[in-house]
Design brief:
The structure is a homodimer of 450-residue chains. Chain A has 450 residues and is an alpha/beta fold. Helix content of chain A is 65%, strand content 7%. In chain A, a hairpin with a 5-residue loop joins strand 2 and strand 3. The first copy, chain A, is elongated.
Chain lengths: 450, 450
């Protein structure tokens, strides 16, 4: 149906959630997005804006007057408002902070004072608190009387000492079910799990997910409670982190953004640099081939042409087993199942597995080379070279594929930068050296020339 | 410190969460796990058991008497109790259902009557409900008087009609803050998002995550509310689904289980079948090489040796760009950013990108072949073949890498089975056909022989 005027748009989108509106808008151009957004009520529009991919949101905000953006900043919870900063010029954002209510501006500045990607930037300060002496009746009264927008959630009420140290927490359910005259100190669950504001967002999000919490209290460096991280924000961080990890494993860099919202140029920027690096790294494989071809020509070219036929098979097997290992280890590191200190255990396990898998592939490879009719009917010497090279290459690929992500983690990089394409490319060149060196020895022993 | 007796174990593990105990136990053998578990109180032990990897839990349960397992089934919320079924023989599980309270057994049977991997098997029936005529005071009284274990969460109270249709929902916060004499019908938020019990778990979990819900109501096929899916269960399903997708993209099959809890044999079972399939598929690449080598020998072998030097470079570029595309598209499909019906848009975008990226690589490849000193100083004809083959191979890899995951999705398979190693292997053989066919034409034109 054609869209006519504010009333029609509002009616059409009535009851549709901001997440769904944002998804639909992504497929339109900026002008259309803007036209529809203008017809929405301010609260929905503000939430749609933060659900839109960064680039789309930036294009829209550039077209919106300061008063509107300031209004959005004001409506949104502070931890969401902070996300809009990414889409604004620093000067404009700074200017807007002077327009919105002073208290909000101060909270935004406080959150922004924490390091990038830290739990402090993800948290909200709008949590419900009480003193240990408050009774359940006091707590309920407080919840009844505080304006709705002051709390991100009241499912937990945090019991703070006078110097704002976290003594314990109360679930709202427990508050309702306990004797109205009992104090928070009596009823509270003590020893809650907490995180530091300077800890990483992903770490905080993993903790929320691991324990199934609906919120995680955040402390500053002096142990005072400064905010909470809610499960929905944690979920969003995890999904972004996982998307970035998955793409990185596939050799694509960049922030998590919806595929269809990215332009062709943006997609190229995320892919071409890696491809070029890998492409140039692959030059080395050609050089290895050329070196051994030269050697073979000097030695009389024995079996060189036949040997070349096995090159894709050998580098394929190395690449595929390396991909399996690096994917498995990178994922285990991300989930915290494997720590960097486990490197030795991991290496021994992977080496054992590689020897067994490599031997199986070696046997099949030997049959492929040696057998007449179903195979290529090659001489025993070359068939043995293929059979021995496979376990050696797979062992090498597994060692590289397991140790590189762990080393990256130790050095403080994201292990996922040791992507499958990276391992594959690295194993291509080095795997061929293994192949030709085995050939030189075995064929040398059989023929006295190579 | 050495562990001595129940008291010491209990004291050492005091205040440690089941998730953390489970992680520590995974690194021990079954006997030690069992010894420690026996010293824990039953509730903690039951939760530790469901956090343990399937294989570990199965080994332990085999050693536990029926009475203990039945006790655990009884303690756990039903949606968690159901997880224990995977670790029990079907007969033993059936027998245990006769030991536990009849009501619990009936609930377990009801949940199990839903399809495998369905929302129905993930939900809990323990949600808080009220009628539309109940006042806020009634609702609070109900929450005060119902035993604690009857609700998985009371953060939302569901307003049901007499025939158990969902009319709306109340947040506990709203119940507290509203006029005590107002009715649920007046206060409730209507038109809640719901899901069918027969819908998939992953779909339900994605919906919980997308909207940041703490619980999602589940309806049966007649529209009656039968349960809720809580955010922590949804989170667990998503993490497992994501782990399985990541591993599948890396060419590893199997359920999400912690790396260190898997035995060497289990890891081999998850990897060797794929490697063997890919290995045998790679035979085809050898056959392609052999066919064109044969052709070239008949034609006088012009430049065959030099041509071979570029093989790893070309199949590497095809494999890497194919990996990028398949990883990007698979992830977008999983997140719902791209639908199967978007195949044409995706193909056109990817083809455009591939032509641009391929041309860039082609130019660099041409320079590598042609330039003296820093390159290989090859004749113009072969350098042109390399320069033209690259965009053609990259275009082909991108088309295959984008369409195969979408086709898998359309046919109802997990798109992640179209893993990067699969695409890479497929592109190896077919990419070489492209290379040699271009060579045959270009070199034929230059030399009249190939």
């Amino acid at each position: 149906a054609p869209i006519e005027g504010a009333a029609a748009v509002r009616e059409t989108l009535e009851g549709i959630r901001p997440e769904d509106i944002a998804e639909a808008l992504q497929r339109l151009g900026t002008d259309e997005e803007l036209a529809i957004l203008r017809h929405l009520d301010a609260e929905t529009a503000a939430y749609v804006l933060i659900e839109l991919p960064t680039e789309d949101a930036r294009a829209i905000i550039n077209q919106l007057p300061d008063a509107t953006v300031a209004h959005y900043l004001d409506i949104l919870p502070m931890d969401d408002a902070i996300e809009l900063r990414e889409e604004l010029d620093p000067e404009r954002f700074e200017a807007l902070l002077h327009v919105i209510p002073r208290e909000d501006a101060q909270e935004i500045r406080r959150l922004l004072s924490y390091p990038e990607e830290s739990a402090g930037q993800l948290m909200t300060e709008d949590f419900a608190e009480c003193t240990p002496e408050d009774t359940m009746m006091d707590v309920l009264r407080m919840i009844r009387q505080t304006p709705d927008s002051d709390f991100e959630t009241v499912n937990y009420i945090y019991v703070l000492s006078e110097d704002r140290h976290l003594l314990g927490l109360l679930s709202l359910k427990r508050v309702i079910r306990s004797d109205p005259m009992s104090t928070a100190r009596e009823v509270m669950h003590d020893d809650p799990v907490t995180i530091l504001a300077t800890d990483g967002q992903e770490e905080a999000a993993r903790m929320v997910a691991r324990y199934g919490f609906s919120a995680l209290p955040v402390l500053d460096e002096r142990g005072r409670m400064v905010g909470i991280i809610t499960a929905d924000d944690a979920q969003e961080i995890l999904e972004e982190a996982e998307t970035e990890d998955v793409l990185r494993l596939g050799g694509v860099s960049g922030d998590a953004e919806a595929y269809l919202s990215l332009s062709i140029w943006q997609l190229i920027r995320r892919r071409l640099p890696w491809l070029l690096v890998l492409f140039i790294a692959e030059f080395f494989t050609g050089s290895v081939l050329r070196y051994y071809t030269g050697q073979a020509e000097e030695g009389g070219k024995t079996m060189l042409a036949q040997m070349m036929l096995f090159v894709p098979l050998l580098i394929g097997a190395g690449g595929n087993s390396g991909s399996q290992v690096t994917t498995t280890i990178t994922r285990s590191l991300a989930l915290g199942e494997v720590k960097a200190t486990d490197w030795f255990t991991v290496m021994v396990r992977e080496a054992t597995i590689a020897l067994m898998i490599g031997s199986a592939l070696g046997f099949v490879g030997f049959l492929r080379a040696k057998l007449p009719v179903i195979g290529w009917n090659q001489p025993m010497s070359l068939s043995l070279v293929v059979g021995f090279a496979l376990p050696a290459i797979v062992l090498w690929a597994a060692t590289v594929g397991s140790l590189l992500p762990i080393t990256a983690k130790r050095l403080g990089f994201d292990p996922a930068v040791m992507s499958a394409p990276f391992i594959t490319t690295f194993v291509d060149a080095t795997g061929l050296v293994i192949y030709f060196e085995i050939a030189r020895r075995v064929l040398g022993a059989f023929h006295q020339t190579f």
